[in-house]
């Protein structure tokens, strides 16, 4: 009896593992299925459901006192809603993290991701991307009195903090292989860990780091960026119709000067063209 | 096509850390839990109160909050710990409170006459506890302690939130970088099951052994 249970358990594990092995390289990527395109779904629902960050100052940050989420990404989402539904308030902001955003998009929980998401070749296997809507670059956030003045100053024994599921962790491992990289659930946790002294630096896109430096004047963002981080709006794989629509909105925002207005409102300067 | 088994070496590395965290914190809590249990049944008011409050706080708050507290709050009070150490301390404090209550139940299940008999042959309280009560109590609570250890193994997955590179954390990082959640989390679940299975068998064996022993006595 006991032996039978063990054998059954092991058979189950092997079968599950084989099921996993069948996934192949692109197990996660899905073509947009279902009869309706995303635009039709949005119009039927009369609401644009978008995945945004709730913990990233300047891009998507929730004010605990009002529960309102505000930032650059939020304003872009509102402009898309305004274009498709005629009302910028017909938008539902769903919290995502770097780790959860692609699964939530593929599961159909959200129509699009506007959440400081870098366009990468790996991600293009999983989702469609709009044109670049923000140009960032990866940098480091360090204590004001830190010896680290550029990324090359990182040495063996230093600890760099990052966020799970972000490109930053991967990039810093390549750029500085001797350092220890610790990954946290979200930016606020990573920043808390930095403040608590659990690392020498925090790495992500400079645009996000500037927001953190605003929160605590004991920290500064290094001038140097060591990668290009072009942000794109992610849409379900295969839904090129919605991608075209989003690109059209982005182009209109640039032409009308509205993009520059949003950029200046949050970043504090005009975009460098 | 890639086989999902390509992830195994990394996951096994994480498994090793999971086992380290589990067994170190279990070893600490097995001992510390005894002292908390003894304090809890002590007639010394201050000891009793401290133990009661400790158990109440630990059992009344989520483990994740406790781990976050050890990792994020203690540095503000001047005590900076690595993720691994924070995990061990957090899990040990958590497990100790539960084990203390298990031990207390075990101690109080021993007939009062046993203690009186120990006194009658000239033993003091400490000797009676060490030689008569605790050995019997431990025997009674072994299955419950075993079950608690299994829960501790599974609870160790929460340490991924404080950046400990254990099995769950490794799985998450692999899943987010490869987008192959199905295979990776299936393997993670399978590894947890494989780890827990021998412990389950051990608990069942102890329960059976106890049944046999108690039948012999009656």
Automatic annotation (TrEMBL), chain A:
Organism: Siminovitchia terrae
A Pfam cross-reference name: SBP_bac_3
Keywords: Lipoprotein, Palmitate, Signal, Transport
Positions of the Ionotropic glutamate receptor C-terminal domain: 47-269
Name of the protein in question: Transporter substrate-binding domain-containing protein
Phosphoprotein among keywords: no
PROSITE patterns noted in UniProt: PROKAR_LIPOPROTEIN (PS51257), SBP_BACTERIAL_3 (PS01039)
InterPro entries recorded: Bact_solute-bind_prot3, Iontro_rcpt_C, SBP_3_CS, Solute-binding_3/MltF_N
Annotated family: Belongs to the bacterial solute-binding protein 3 family.
PANTHER family named among the record's database cross-references: ABC TRANSPORTER GLUTAMINE-BINDING PROTEIN GLNH (PTHR30085:SF6), AMINO ACID ABC TRANSPORTER PERMEASE (PTHR30085)
Span of domain Solute-binding protein family 3/N-terminal: 47-270
Domain of life: Bacteria
Automatic annotation (TrEMBL), chain B:
Residue intervals passing through the bilayer: 16-39, 51-72, 184-203
Topological relation to the membrane, as annotated: Multi-pass membrane protein
Keyword field contains Transport: yes
Keywords attached to this entry: Amino-acid transport, Cell membrane, Membrane, Transmembrane, Transmembrane helix, Transport
Domain spans labelled ABC transmembrane type-1: 15-203
Pfam families cross-referenced by the UniProt entry: BPD_transp_1
Subcellular location: Cell membrane
Recorded superkingdom: Bacteria
CDD domains: TM_PBP2
Entry similarity comment: Belongs to the binding-protein-dependent transport system permease family.
NCBIfam families associated with the record: HEQRo_perm_3TM
PANTHER family: L-CYSTINE TRANSPORT SYSTEM PERMEASE PROTEIN TCYL, MEMBRANE COMPONENT OF AMINO ACID ABC TRANSPORTER
Name the record gives this protein: Glutamine ABC transporter permease
């Amino acid at each position: 009896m006991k032996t039978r249970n063990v054998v059954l358990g092991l058979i189950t594990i092997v079968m599950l593992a084989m099921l996993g092995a069948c996934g192949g390289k692109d197990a996660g990527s899905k073509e947009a299925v279902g009869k309706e395109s995303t635009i039709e779904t949005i119009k039927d629902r009369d609401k644009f459901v978008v995945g945004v960050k709730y913990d990233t100052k300047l891009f998507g940050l929730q004010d605990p006192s009002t529960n309102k989420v505000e930032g650059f990404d939020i304003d872009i989402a509102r402009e898309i809603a305004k274009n498709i539904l005629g009302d910028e308030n017909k938008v539902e902001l769903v919290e995502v993290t770097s780790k959860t955003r692609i699964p939530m998009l593929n599961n159909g929980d959200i129509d699009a991701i506007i959440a400081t998401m870098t366009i990468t070749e790996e991600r293009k296997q999983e989702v469609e991307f709009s044109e670049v809507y923000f140009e960032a670059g990866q940098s480091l956030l360090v204590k004001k009195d830190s010896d680290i003045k550029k990324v090359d100053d990182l040495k063996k024994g230093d600890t760099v903090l990052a966020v799970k599921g972000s490109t930053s962790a991967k990039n810093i491992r390549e750029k500085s292989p001797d350092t220890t990289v610790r990954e946290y659930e979200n930016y606020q946790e990573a920043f808390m860990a930095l403040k608590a002294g659990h690392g020498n630096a925090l790495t992500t896109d400079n645009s996000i780091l500037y927001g953190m430096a605003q929160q605590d004047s004991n920290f500064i963002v290094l001038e140097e960026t060591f990668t290009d981080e072009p942000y794109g709006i992610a849409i379900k794989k295969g839904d090129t119709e919605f991608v075209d629509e989003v690109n059209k909105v982005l182009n209109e925002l640039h032409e009308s000067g509205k993009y520059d207005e949003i950029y200046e409102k949050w970043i504090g300067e005009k975009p460098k063209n | 096509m890639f086989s999902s088994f390509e992830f195994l070496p990394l996951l096994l590395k994480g498994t090793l850390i999971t086992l380290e965290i589990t067994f170190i914190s279990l070893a600490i809590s097995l001992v510390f839990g005894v002292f908390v249990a003894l304090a809890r049944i002590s007639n010394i008011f201050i000891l009793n109160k401290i133990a009661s409050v400790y158990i109440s706080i630990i059992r009344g708050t989520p483990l994740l909050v406790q781990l976050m507290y050890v990792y994020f709050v203690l540095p503000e009070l001047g005590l900076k710990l690595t993720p691994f150490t924070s995990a061990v301390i957090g899990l040990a404090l958590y497990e100790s409170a539960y084990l203390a209550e298990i031990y207390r139940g075990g101690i109080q299940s021993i007939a009062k006459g046993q203690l009186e008999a120990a006194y009658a042959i000239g033993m003091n309280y400490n000797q009676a506890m060490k030689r008569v009560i605790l050995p019997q109590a431990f025997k009674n609570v072994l299955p419950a302690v075993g079950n608690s250890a299994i829960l501790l193994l599974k609870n160790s997955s929460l340490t991924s939130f404080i950046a400990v590179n254990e099995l769950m954390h490794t799985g998450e990082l692999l899943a987010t970088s490869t987008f192959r959640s199905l295979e990776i989390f299936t393997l993670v679940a399978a590894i947890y099951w494989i780890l827990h299975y021998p412990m389950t068998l051990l608990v069942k064996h102890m329960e059976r052994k106890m049944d046999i022993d108690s039948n012999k006595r009656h």
